[in-house]
């Protein structure tokens, strides 16, 4: 089992520090800074679930709504044994920033249940998901707050959420959740959207930096939904994937890992660890490999003050939310690394979630091609807007992305005013 070397940082404090720094370098209303430093609504629930052996287990769940000034709250649901309220607060706040960077009409939220879904039977997982959905149903809804998948959740779980909410309403409500299976109102391209968005960003950055993608090298930490798709699409673009990891371990081959073998090995054994024709590699060794593109796509606090200096990649594409601590960010910048921040790099997921929501509300569905083309347009615009600010203000891509997001949120607050 891989343990993170940097897990002492409080991600919500990291977010607040980031807001303080960015806002001190730009013109922004005091009201905006005060409002976005905190989450609007925080909900904690302890709820019982009947286990297969007849016992009752109490689960703890959260739904945190950070801000909805630009549109309904939007954000995934995480099932993870170590999740806590500050992590959910940070993830909710990053959603607000992300939706603003890519300019889609959403606010930010996040939900979680403290559990290891791998240790639950399918029936237990379903009962737990349905009860959690009932508990948060006072908060969610297609006009209010729309959940989606995150770490430990998937389309099947989204289907249970949609069904539970619909049963309680008395009619099918497609727009209550995104990331659903296609058969029940999901969008083609949603499953791949976050990884695809990362790769669109990586290709745009490579063009800007003059890095040749074909024949280049990449390392992906976290071979799940985001990392697995990003890895596949990088390889499809001619990149040599030299190392990947998941929570059980990492694998390395300087000549390139075979994507098909990697996928079937993961499917059969549950992990990338032990892949034939590869060497095993520790997390810090993997992060320190010489390569063109590094994609941290696991959890928060992966690159911190203890290991930022070893990163040799030219470009870091943050597939995960919050993988780099503020101190590590300074080191990466000082070392001339081009970091595409999470709120831009992994925004492809929320963009296609937005497309799914729009399709559900209209009951009019697009082709996969249309979805992918629209995603490309949105990501392309956002990347160039952020890059333009970064070059003009001589600041990092992260600071530029935050500046753009805060500006958009600030003008919404100014235009709407403070109620009453
Ligand atoms: P996932 O559960 O599908 O995958 C996470 C992967 O990370 C798993 O393979 C897990 O084994 C691995 N992992 C966990 N700890 C690790 C460690 N210490 N070292 C190496 N690997 C480790 O989750 P996901 O949906 O791919 O999400 C990954 C990240 O991307 C999260 O930060 C999430 O918030 C972010 N994200 C996801 C989406 C989405 O659409 N799913 C959208 C935006 C951002």
How does this structure look, described?
With 420 residues, the protein is α/β, with parallel strands linked by helices. It is 45% helix and 17% strand. The chain contains 14 helices and twelve strands. Strands 9-8-7-6-10-11-12 form a seven-stranded mixed β-sheet, with helices on both faces. Strand 7 (240-246) and strand 8 form a beta hairpin. Helix 12 crosses helix 13. The longest helix is centred in the last third of the chain and has 26 residues, at 368-393. The radius of gyration is 20 Å and the shape is globular. The termini are far apart. The model has no long low-confidence stretch (mean pLDDT 96). It binds nicotinamide-adenine-dinucleotide.
Main sheet properties: 7 strands, mixed
Radius of gyration, Cα only, in angstroms?
20 Å
Instruction: Name the poorly predicted regions.
Output: none
For the terminal residues, how far apart are their CA atoms? Answer: 52 Å
- Residue-averaged pLDDT: 96
Oligomer: single chain
Q: What gross morphology would you assign? A: globular
Q: Widest sheet: strand order?
A: 9-8-7-6-10-11-12
- Strands, total number: 12
Please work out how many helical segments DSSP would assign.
14
The ordered string of helix (H) and strand (E) elements is HHEEEHEHEHHEHEEHEHEEHEHHHH
| Overall SS class | alpha/beta
Bound ligands, each once: nicotinamide-adenine-dinucleotide
Helix content: 40-55%
Strand content: 15-25%
């Amino acid at each position: 089992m891989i343990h993170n070397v940097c897990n002492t940082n409080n991600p919500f404090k990291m977010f607040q520090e980031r807001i303080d720094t960015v806002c001190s370098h730009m013109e922004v209303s005091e009201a905006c800074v005060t409002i976005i430093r905190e989450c609007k609504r925080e909900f904690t629930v302890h709820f019982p679930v009947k286990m297969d052996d007849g016992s009752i287990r109490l689960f703890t769940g959260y739904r945190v709504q950070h801000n909805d000034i630009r549109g309904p709250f939007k954000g995934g649901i995480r099932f993870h044994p170590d999740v806590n309220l500050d992590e959910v607060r940070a993830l909710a706040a990053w959603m607000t920033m992300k939706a603003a960077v890519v300019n889609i009409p959403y606010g930010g939220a996040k939900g979680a249940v403290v559990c290891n879904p791998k240790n639950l039977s399918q029936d237990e997982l379903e009962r737990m998901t349905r009860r959690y959905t009932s508990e948060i149903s006072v908060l969610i809804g297609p006009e209010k707050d729309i959940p989606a998948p995150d770490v430990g959740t998937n389309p099947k779980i989204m289907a249970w959420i949609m069904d539970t909410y619909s049963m309680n309403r008395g009619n099918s409500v497609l727009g209550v959740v995104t990331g659903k299976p296609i058969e029940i109102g999901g969008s083609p391209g949603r499953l791949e959207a976050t990884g695809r968005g990362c790769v669109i960003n990586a290709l745009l950055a490579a063009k800007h930096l003059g890095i040749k993608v074909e024949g280049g090298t990449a390392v992906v930490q976290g071979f799940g939904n985001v990392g697995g798709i990003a890895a596949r699409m990088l390889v499809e673009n001619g990149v040599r994937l030299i190392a990947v990891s998941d929570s059980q371990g990492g694998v390395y081959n300087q000549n390139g890992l075979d994507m098909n073998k990697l996928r079937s090995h993961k499917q059969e054994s549950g992990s990338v660890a032990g892949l034939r024709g590869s060497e095993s590699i520790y997390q810090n060794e993997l992060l320190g490999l010489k390569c063109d593109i590094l994609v941290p796509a696991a959890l928060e606090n992966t690159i911190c003050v203890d290991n930022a200096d070893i990163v040799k990649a030219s470009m870091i594409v943050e597939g995960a939310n919050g993988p780099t601590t503020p101190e590590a960010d300074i080191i990466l910048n000082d070392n001339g690394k081009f970091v595409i921040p999470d709120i831009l790099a992994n925004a492809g997921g929320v963009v296609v979630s937005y497309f799914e929501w729009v399709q559900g509300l209209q009951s009019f569905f697009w082709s996969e091609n249309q979805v992918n083309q629209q995603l490309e347009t949105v990501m392309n615009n956002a990347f160039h807007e952020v890059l333009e600010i970064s070059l003009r203000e001589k600041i990092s891509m992260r600071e530029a992305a935050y500046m753009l997001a805060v500006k958009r949120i600030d003008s919404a607050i100014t235009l709407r005013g403070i109620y009453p």
